[in-house]
Amino acid sequence: MKRACVIGWPIEHSRSPAIHGYWLDRYKIDGSYTKRAVPPEEIETFLGALAAEGLAGCNVTIPHKEAAFRKSDEREASAVAVGAAITLWLDDAGRLCAANTDTYGYMTYLADQAEDWSRRDAPVSILGAGGAARAIVYGFLEAGVGEVRVFNRSLARAEALAKDFGLRVKVLPWDQRSRASTEAAVLVNTTSVGLKGAGTLDIDFTDFHPDCIVSDIVYVPLETALIREARRHGLRTVDGLGMLLHQAVPGFERWFGVRPEVTDELYDRIAADIEAA
User: Fold this and answer.
1) Dmax of the chain from CA atoms?
2) What are the beta bridge partners of residue 90?
3) How many CA atoms lie within 13 A of 123 on its CB side?
4) Which one of 26, 174, 201, 274 is most buried, by most CB atoms within 10 A?
5) What are phi and psi of 236, to 5 degrees?
6) Are strands 96-99 and 87-90 parallel, antiparallel or unpaired?
7) Active site positions, annotated
8) How far apart, in Å, do the first and last CA atoms of the chain sit?
9) Are the CB atoms for 206 and 213 separated by under 8 Å?
């Protein structure tokens, strides 16, 4: 039986077992996917013992993403760009391989929900400068976006991100996040503002281009205040749940040998779980 898991500290909140469990059932695979609570002081020992524990690999969540990146032997470009790993697997030689599948998850869902997002030659606005922001900035640059504008309360952190990604990334003050985004093709919230309804980003959508797509990687609740306000102004929106579902695809294929499909049934099942929580 093939086995994989998700690790974090804490880990109780993770919905990954529900996602992978759905696919294991759907494709009738003899396998398991579980949660493992791993304290920070034990992360290197745990990762070094994956093979001994009979694990094909794991997903990684807070606070282990950077440690997993450092521990890995082989790193895909996505992990190198972000400096963090969220999907790990053992190759045929037993080497620990790492990817940051947030990039794949976000860009795949954006294209699924708004196929024409890139038809205008316009900048993209990113709110936040953490690990998720890095993964998404990398995705837009790889997609050929000419300018990515980053807004973050800590200017120094945003400037560090821009330095790593080059001249197509521009840092602007946080208080310009609305007026400097009016022509944006996409505006993305990568911060935790809005999680469980806490806080607001105070974006004024009044003068935004009517074709702008507003996206939030927060998925609890599914309709954040940002998404709700953008819809009120007639803008198209992309929620955060699809990124979570699609980022799980490459890992499942690595561990279990089948490339799974993100179906409406899976989306509805996880959405119902979020709404019931």
Assistant:
1) 58
2) 96
3) 19
4) 201
5) -75, 150
6) antiparallel
7) 65
8) 31
9) no
